[in-house]
Amino acid sequence: MEFVQVKYPDVKLLQQFIDEAGASLKSFRYFQKRPLEVIKNHACTFLLVDDEEPVAYGHLDKEGDTIWLGVAVIEAYLGLGLGVLVMKKLTDFAKENNIPVIKLSVDNNNSSAISLYKKLGFVLLEKKEGFSFYSLTVL
Questions:
Q1: Going by C-beta distance under 8 Å and a sequence separation of 6 or more, which residues neighbour residue 37?
Q2: Torsion-angle region of residue 55: left (phi > 0), alpha (psi -120 to 50) or beta?
Q3: Is residue 118 part of a domain?
Q4: How far is CA 65 from the centre of its chain?
Q5: Segments in the chain below pLDDT 70
Q6: Which residues does residue 44 pair with via DSSP β-bridges, in sequence order?
Q7: pLDDT recorded at residue 121
Q8: Is residue 60 part of a domain?
Q9: How many domains does the chain have?
């Protein structure tokens, strides 16, 4: 497996990931209301590719002074540790590019993702009805 950095307008592989993600997109709704052009605003966008098939996705998205992390794994590849690999790639990118803090939001019922985020050092900032915000100090 290898990481591929995706940049606009070369989004064919990203579209393939979205098309094949299956039930994983129920909790990762980032592209439901956003066009693929949104990656122009990302600090980085990565796909983890296995034999030319994208199997995991991650981004750091700039919104004002906040950097938001997003990660998803294709349904058939869940439970293999790929989420950890993508998260490490994103946090390494943040360190290398002097991004001091990254944040994320997660559905409160997504216990596997919450467990992963806590394991990697993310701290709960705020809990709302249905979802929560977490933060990680990188530098």
A1: 8
A2: alpha
A3: no
A4: 18
A5: none
A6: 60
A7: 94
A8: yes
A9: 1
Q: What was the pLDDT predicted at 23?
A: 86
d(C-alpha 52, C-alpha 50), whole Å: 5
Residues contacting 123, CB < 8 A, separation 6+: 134, 135, 136
CA angle 64, 98, 122 (to 5 degrees): 75
- Domain containing 74 — which CATH number? 3.40.630.30
Contact (CB, 8 A) for 22 and 57:
no
Does residue 139 contact residue 95 with C-beta atoms inside 8 Å?
yes
Task: Write out the residue range of the structural domain in which residue 33 sits.
Answer: 2-99
Within a domain: 15: yes
Assigned domain for 110 exists: no
Please report where in the chains the tokens 């980032």 appear, as a residue: 30
Task: Fill in the DSSP letter of residue 76.
Answer: G
pTM tops 0.90: yes
Residues with Cβ within 8 Å of residue 133, at least 6 apart in sequence: 103, 104, 105, 124, 125, 126, 127
pLDDT of the residue at 136: 96
Above pLDDT 70, what percent of the chain? Answer: 100
Cβ neighbors of 137 (< 8 A, separation 6 or more) are: 100, 101
